[in-house]
Amino acid sequence: xxxxxxxxxxxxxxxRRLPGIGQKSAQRIAFHILRTDRxxxxxxxxxxxxxxxxxxxxxxCNNISAGDLCPFCSDPRRxxxxxxxxxDPNNILAVETTRCFHGLYHVLHGAISPLRxxxxxxxxxxxxxxxxxxxxxGDEVGEVILATNxxxxxxxxxxxxxxxxxxxxxxxxxxxxxxxxxxxxxFADEVSMMKSLENRREL
Length: 203
Fold this sequence. Notes:
Low-confidence stretches: none
Radius of gyration: 20 Å
Largest sheet: 5 strands, mixed
Number of strands: 7
Number of domains: 2
Number of helices: 7
CATH class of the largest domain: Alpha Beta
Mean pLDDT: 89
């Protein structure tokens, strides 16, 4: 016997699928939506659908984008000689809050994790190598910063990428461990992230 009416039970169950949302939080959000007017619920549902229908991946860096190129790749003021490699699109915000990085990004959409069945072929590594190979003349990339998370998977991914990139003659650096080991970049504070970028090391 369900605790609530079926539509409300279903809404709670859907919220529980979201990361970091437990039963109590799912119930609070569901009851909040129940109390709001229909227009507010409609705006929420349209925003969710728009995210699925109107967003894709940047053709250059794999960041989330509403067009062919994301705002970073289409910005002529960005330094095209430096690429910062991150695991997920939300990691870009952590780097941007430092206001000290002005290059481009490349999003891998994950990290190497054999236990979870994720190998290099499941990540956006091939497109990174294609980007680096396509650079010619003054637009040549001089440095790739590996800003994968300071976890076992992130370190393994950084080590794998450094082995691929070194033969290309491109400077390959790793962010310093101002970021606590075992944490995600999205939870890093601004100063720690800035120090990690400033004190990056050669790989």
